[in-house]
Amino acid sequence: MSALPNCPKCQSEYTYEDGDLYICPECSHEWSKRATTEAADDSAVIKDSNGNLLQDGDTVTVIKDLKVKGSSLVVKVGTKVKNIRLLPDASDGHDIDCKIDGIGAMKLKSEFVKKA
Fold this sequence. Notes:
- This protein has 116 residues and is mainly β.
- The chain has two domains: 37 residues, N-terminal domain of TfIIb (Single Sheet), CATH 2.20.25; 57 residues, Roll (SH3 type barrels), CATH 2.30.30.
- 8% of the residues lie in helices and 28% in strands.
- This is Protein YjdM.
- InterPro entries: YjdM, YjdM_C, YjdM_N.
- Belongs to the YjdM family.
């Protein structure tokens, strides 16, 4: 088994070392070893679009109109979302689980919200 990290871009397990870099042969992504250790320290930290630390139970505000996949509904700018739950191991980038009034349960990306 290899102790090298998976590619952060495509999650390939076939990464290799080249000097001070890790390289993915499948997608040609290169990243530094130092960035990997810093990312491991910040893996459980989820921040909003302004860089504020988010926690379970926080209230956030949506900063961009978001189309709801599979329906004609839209989450409008300024919509307040109360009592969020964080999903730190979300592989698709949707790291906030919540309920929005009038829409229901859904997942959001932290880059589209700000702490209220």
